[in-house]
Design brief:
Layout (H helix, E strand, L loop, with lengths): L2 H19 L5 H23 L3 H14 L14 E2 L20 E3 L15 E2 L5 H28 L5 E6 L2 E7 L1 H4 L9 H15 L5 E6 L12 H18 L8 E5 L12 H7 L1 E7 L4 H4 L2 H13 L1
Parallel strand pairs: 6-7
Antiparallel strand pairs: 1-3, 2-4, 4-5, 5-8, 6-8
Length: 309
Amino acid sequence: MSANPRGRGRGRAKKSHDEAEHPDERWMASYMDMITVLMCMFLVLFAMSTVDQQKYIQLKNSLATGFGEVKSQKVDTASGTVVTKDEVEDGSGYSVDKSQADHSTASSGTKDTNVDPASTVVPTTATKADVAAAKKEFDDLQAIEQAIKANLAKAGQTSNVQFTVDARGLTVRLVGSETYFTTNSADLSDQAKRIMDAIAPVLKTSGHDVSVEGHADQRNSTAPYATNWELSAARATGVLRDLVERGGMPAQDIQSVGFGSSRPLAKGGTDADLTLNRRVDIVVLSNQDQDVSALMPALAKAQDGARAG
């Protein structure tokens, strides 16, 4: 009877001894995971702090060249490609300014190409073919402008019409709504119709699509138009209808759109600013692709510089 208790006692003692020799080590798995993550983090931080010395020197030299601190025999790819004189067939020049600045011209004037092309720059993406195509398109738009000006001069309507060349094409700007429309009306005045009679014959044979774009000043519209959107769209459509119905412009080559007061030319609130913002733009769209058309503002700026010189 007494042997059984002693046997049970020895069993309990052995179990306690095993637990002391083999403790629970599951915490080590979490600890090892944490150490691994920390190691990866420090590796990433070290990699981020390492600078490629060769690439750093290339960047430093490129910036120094771009800002004119270091002379270079070649043009940085970010600045442009120099067009030399022998690459321009007719000797006309291009602007050093790559911006898409508008080309504003006077109501009359003659073409002047006395600009040194060796001192001009065009975008690096421009090939010789692109430059030639841009020059041809620019000359075509200039011919349209001169033809319209000649007709306006014959009709005695040279005022209140402005001309601009940009990457979109030639804009014939009808400034000052009172000249063309009565208050809050989309019906063209008699003077406006005389101006349209001078413009339409040139546009219908130009071979270009045309966008008629209405604009309003920032003042609120009144009846019968609820907003400036409706007013500007109605006036653009009125010009379109006159060009098509009386001027013979092919309907498939023309569109109209109203911008309301969202695209003002002047930010102020003076009478001159409001008059400039109340306008209808007749845009003779370029037939060339975007890369070629983007070169035309440089051509226009070069021509302006030649006239100013």
